[in-house]
Amino acid sequence: xxxxxxxxxxxxxxxxxxxxxxxxxxxxxxxxxxxxxxxxxxxxxxxxxxxxxxxxxxxxxxxxxxxxxxxxxxxxxxxxxxxxxxxxxxxxxxxxxxxxxxxxxxxxxxxxxxxxxxxxxxxxxxxxxxxxxxxxxxxxxxxxxxxxxxxxxxxxxxxxxxxxxxxxxxxxxxxxxxxxxxxxxxxxxxxxxxxxxxxxxxxxxxxxxxxxxxxxxxxxxxxxxxxxxxxxxxxxxxxxxxxxxxxxxxxxxxx
Length: 255
Prior knowledge:
This protein is mostly helical. The longest helix is centred in the middle third of the chain and has 28 residues, at 125-152. It has helices at residues 5-11, 67-75, 79-87, 102-107, 111-116, 118-123, 125-152, 157-173, 179-187, 196-214, 223-243; strands spanning 25-28, 47-50, 55-58, 64-66. The protein is built from 11 helices and 4 strands, in the order H-E-E-E-E-H-H-H-H-H-H-H-H-H-H. The chain has a 4-stranded antiparallel beta sheet.
């Protein structure tokens, strides 16, 4: 049986607006963007819990979903872990391709194929999951390159925070589970111990720095534009090498 969304909020310490408690729409402080917890916003409550439909939505950052997604985001567990916790373990484990949500399938071009021919999708699950792994890997490379560049930029604090918020939104849009925390986790590691995608992202970031200096852009105004350019080139070269049978995690662009 699904938990009640209000119970999940209380269990995880979400701040609830007292005069909405028990109503159909319960207002809370958003624990995801925390915009309504900033100074001067004591009376703002951007997160809405629909206790009839058991869904949530933040009217500032747009985070939304059902009760299981809500608990997953609050606790840091995966959706499948929360589902297993609340509903029990399935007798037959789901194939990883079956765990991909519609937006993830859409990102790799399989959503419509699954909708039109479910049987063909089931037969192609290995291919689907390989496509997802490749998508996740290549997108993390570009995101980590952007993160590295932003982290090193010598900009005013407000501008720096603005760029990080922009990157958080981009990461969220990619539908990669725990995407931004993964970027943070890799960034604090010594480079020798980083994941392959983080090391490749580091190379792209350095290429962007080098391009700025070669074009005498010492203020680094164009560096955020160079990263997507080099990432696009890297993905094209990687796709060519994969067709030729190269190892999918082989570095294809050097500094």
